[in-house]
Design brief:
By secondary structure, this protein is α/β, with parallel strands linked by helices. It has one domain (2-181): Ribonuclease H-like superfamily/Ribonuclease H (Nucleotidyltransferase, domain 5, 2-Layer Sandwich). It has seven helices and five strands, in the order βαββαβαβαααα. The protein has helices spanning 16-26, 57-64, 75-86, 98-104, 111-117, 128-135, 157-181; strands at 2-11, 31-39, 45-48, 68-72, 95-97. α5 (111-117) crosses α7 (157-181) and α6 (128-135) crosses α7. It is globular and about 55 Å long.
Length: 189
């Protein structure tokens, strides 16, 4: 059975920590900015929706293919966001959550913490929180930023490229965690 590892970066004016993923995706300005993915052990690829790239047919078909297991760290977020954005049903039984697997084994809740705890080769990038604040949340309008309320790739392409690298890195980290934990299977997915 093929496995598709996924990480997305999104934008919404709703505060995810206060409203949850379903209300977050219902915001008029919700969008997926980046989608990083890898089939099995293949190289991680990224789709930059914000800069006009579109989802390849192979990936779009894989997202609804029952024979392909989709994995992510906090998979319900990716599943719900992708279902909304692509207007496709994404049954939860086709997804595996690496965060749930880690928690079931008494490991920490956050991707960064699990990778550190397991002393893995791949680690989450330190810049992640700052990049999420910059691109995934509204910003305060100031004279310096021209009173804009949102940062776009064109406002700082260096940060945007780092954001893309971060998204891809998270797929590598999630995949390594998943492989490490696979020797301790969860019986009833």
């Amino acid at each position: 059975m093929s496995i598709l590892s996924i990480d997305i970066e999104t934008y919404s004016s709703m505060d995810l920590t206060k409203c949850g993923v379903y209300a977050y995706t219902e915001s008029e300005d919700f969008e997926i900015l980046l989608l990083a993915y890898a089939f099995d052990d293949e190289e991680v690829k990224i789709i930059d929706f914000k800069c006009g790239e579109s989802i390849p047919i192979k990936l779009r078909e894989a997202l609804t293919d029952k024979s392909i297991i989709k994995t992510a760290f906090n998979a319900n977020f990716e599943r719900t966001c992708l279902a909304k954005y692509l207007n496709e049903k994404m049954p939860p039984e086709q997804w595996r959550c690496t965060a749930v697997h880690a928690l079931s084994l008494g490991l920490p809740q956050r991707l960064e913490s699990v990778a550190k705890c397991l002393n893995l080769k791949h680690q989450k990038m330190n810049e992640s929180k700052a990049l999420i604040r910059y691109f995934s949340m509204p910003c305060k309008g100031t004279k310096v930023n021209g009173n804009r309320m949102r940062n776009l790739p064109k406002h700082d392409m260096n940060k945007w490229n780092l954001f893309k690298n971060y998204c891809m890195k998270d797929v590598e980290v999630e995949r390594e965690i998943r492989k490490y934990l696979d020797v301790y299977p969860i019986i009833n997915w």
